[in-house]
Amino acid sequence: MKILMVDVDGVLVDGRPSDGLPFATDLERDLGLPVDVWQREFFKPFWPDVVTGREPIEPRLTAVLREIAPHLEAETLLQYWFENDSRLDQTLLDDLAVVRKTGIALYLATNQEHRRAAYLMDELGLARHFDGIFYSAKFGHRKPAQDFFRLVTAEVGASPEDIVFLDDTLENVEAARLFGWNAVYWTAGMTLETAIAPFTAVEENR
Known about the structure:
Layout: E1 3-6, H1 27-31, H2 35-51, H3 57-68, H4 74-84, H5 90-100, E2 105-110, H6 114-123, E3 132-135, H7 136-139, H8 146-156, E4 163-167, H9 170-179, E5 182-185, H10 192-205
Parallel strand pairs: 1-2, 1-4, 2-3, 4-5
């Protein structure tokens, strides 16, 4: 293992900082926007293009809010979303720091649009803990597409077998394995030591 790739949502980041509940739990109470309406009018029709970088989020979200929540500004909603979807798994982050000190490169590999990717690195401070972020809007492909893994592998200049990947979506894990990555299906309660043990043992036996 030379490179460790880590998914964001469901692995490193999970819900609201205060309680871990989904970020939109109190969206209607706080901002007057029903979650189901936002899902139906924005995420279902437009998210595929936004998350793969074919369309910026701000103009489309502004247009949708004009129809479903004219009282609400896009920037207000984005700030609410990002701030309430930012609970870090500090134990995992600490364990990753130990691995990084051994010389293994750490990267985030995630489906994100441009604004939240920047928020994660700059505002949430993950740039201090990782060597970089690879995300769907940057490449025009999202997990589990094989092109996502191909482009990330080319970017780091490594062989697929040198990459270990943690993700909480089984479809993504299977796609990564198909490409040649050593992918681990991350589940609740798992520790980093357990997740990467098979691959560190291989290194020790070489």
